[in-house]
Backbone:
């Protein structure tokens, strides 16, 4: 692992750099067109009186090189809170230095400290390097589960359905 690596919770001053890293993640996943949010919205969601998400910044020599963005979920079967890792990203030139592993370890420590019953995330089916990495970390890839998503107008349509 890179001995110059620092992991820490994001602060409001990190938001511009964090949003830049989110855009870099979208570019890597060929989803740049899907980034419709803003740094201002991210700041509100991270640091308002009722934050929706938390973030961990990975730095080398005080330069942000990666992040993990997460939030709490809940397992009804375990009757315990969990942590859902929405995104984990390391700039390509800093990969294979143990940064991703360190971020997951840091997040697992948060989960243990908070009494969480599970830590989970999704991975794109084409991202074989990430899948192999997660398996090496001890993650199970659940073959029988699919993500269901409703966005934008579809949410409003469901909300306004009479039956």
Residues:
């Amino acid at each position: 692992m890179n001995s110059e690596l620092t992991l820490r919770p994001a602060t409001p001053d990190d938001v511009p750099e964090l949003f830049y890293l989110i855009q870099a993640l979208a570019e890597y996943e060929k989803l740049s067109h899907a980034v419709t949010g803003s740094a201002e919205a991210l700041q509100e969601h991270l640091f308002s009186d009722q934050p929706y998400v938390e973030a961990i910044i990975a730095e080398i020599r005080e330069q942000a090189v990666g992040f993990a963005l997460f939030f709490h979920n809940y397992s009804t079967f375990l009757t315990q809170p969990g942590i859902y890792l929405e995104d984990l990203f390391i700039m390509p030139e800093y990969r294979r230095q143990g940064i991703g592993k360190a971020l997951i370890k840091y997040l697992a420590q948060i989960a243990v400290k908070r009494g969480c019953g599970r830590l989970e995330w999704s991975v794109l089916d084409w991202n074989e390097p990430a899948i192999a990495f997660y398996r090496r970390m001890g993650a199970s890839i659940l073959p029988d589960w699919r993500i269901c998503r409703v966005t934008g107008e579809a949410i409003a349509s469901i909300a306004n359905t009479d039956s």
The longest strand covers residues 63-75.
